[in-house]
From TrEMBL:
InterPro entries: McrC, McrC_bac. Pfam families: McrBC. One of its GO terms (biological process) is DNA restriction-modification system. This is 5-methylcytosine restriction system component-like protein. It comes from the Bacteria.
């Protein structure tokens, strides 16, 4: 379990803009559902974006017009007999706020407005912002090409807003048997894992700058240098301090432990342990033992809560859990204690 309020704090670390003055009221509210939290953030964020000015872009259009614009499409004009109506079919570019970014914002806002778990207060705030989107179309949320979105100086302020939209649409949107769409009450584990990973990385970047927190590519320690077909190894978080290195692999599962039905026992997920061990041994080229690994699980409601340290092949491999269903001050204490014990 995770407190909804803590999702806000995780987002605030992942997207620094949420630390600005306009969002501070959100931090003091109590939320029962994730959708209500996202509605609160988006209503304030979209209102702020409206004050800055909505993004506009050139969109190609082809239509019959009385006053020619752009390039006259003679063949289309003949086919449509538009000249009989004293019109010409023209191809032209229109500079409009009906852009891809604004379409995603409106589509997400309307999903939240229709969601029964969103409070009346936040629905009202979202509806108010949508008055400025009257010329913006809703789109099929399942057809959004997220990978094609590019940010630059003129639309950088949309980045956090679009990431919230992504969590709502990709992490919560469900399609019913009758084809209708509704939002789940909570973000699915796959997308929460990504947020969890980003949060832990940004937490250490902010509070322990001396550790140079980063996500690092780890080279394979192979003889002869032939690495063709070997998969890329990339850590979630790598911390370095005074000759020591800690590789952290974050895990967000419904179940932390795997069950061995043959022996009626519970163990740490074997592939997780193999993965972190592989990262550590390939980074520790000097075999110094100064490279350590940590599997950091989000705590579940299971009876067994892993908190173990092992020395495997001369390197320290630890398994810890982070309780996200507590006051955020306690989450900070947990994260601080982990690295201070392993690096300082």
């Amino acid at each position: 379990m995770i407190r909804i309020q803590n999702i806000y704090y995780m987002l605030a670390y992942a997207f620094h803009v949420l630390n600005e003055e306009g969002y501070k009221q959100v931090a003091t509210e109590d939320f029962e559902y994730t959708s209500d939290l996202f509605a609160a953030i988006l209503s304030k964020g979209i209102a702020s974006q409206i004050k800055r000015g909505l993004s506009r872009e050139y969109i190609s259009k082809t239509e019959a017009v009385i006053s020619p614009a752009g390039k006259i499409n003679v063949s289309a004009s003949i086919v449509q007999n538009s000249m009989l109506k004293k019109k010409l079919v023209c191809d032209y570019d229109e500079f409009t706020e009906n852009s891809c970014l604004n379409k995603i914002l409106k589509t997400t806002a309307m999903l939240l407005i229709r969601c029964p778990e969103v409070s009346t207060q936040h629905k009202k705030a979202l509806r108010k912002t949508m008055l400025y989107f009257s010329n913006v179309d809703e789109i099929n949320p399942r057809r959004i090409q997220w990978s094609s979105i590019r940010y630059h100086r003129n639309n950088a302020t949309y980045k956090m807003l679009l990431n919230i939209c992504y969590l709502v649409i990709e992490g919560m949107l469900m399609t019913e048997q009758d084809g209708s769409r509704k939002l789940a009450r909570y973000v699915d584990d796959q997308h929460m894992h990504r947020l969890y990973e980003k949060f832990v990385l940004e937490y250490y970047r902010r509070h322990y700058p001396q550790f140079n927190a980063s996500s690092t590519i780890i080279d394979w320690d192979v003889d002869g240098g032939e690495i063709e077909y070997l998969p890329t190894m990339k850590s979630d978080i790598t911390l370095r301090y005074r000759g020591k290195t800690l590789i952290i692999d974050t895990k967000y599962y419904e179940k932390t432990m795997q069950i061995n039905s043959l022996f009626n026992s519970q163990t740490i997920h074997s592939h997780n342990l193999y993965q972190i061990f592989t990262y550590v041994k390939n980074m520790d080229l000097a075999r110094s033992g100064n490279i350590s690994g940590l599997l950091l699980y989000a705590k579940t409601d299971e009876d067994i809560v892993p908190d173990n340290d092992y020395i495997i092949g001369g390197n320290r491999i630890s398994v810890k859990t982070l309780d996200l269903n507590t006051d955020f001050s306690n989450i900070s204490k947990q994260l601080n204690a982990i690295v201070e014990k392993m690096l300082l």
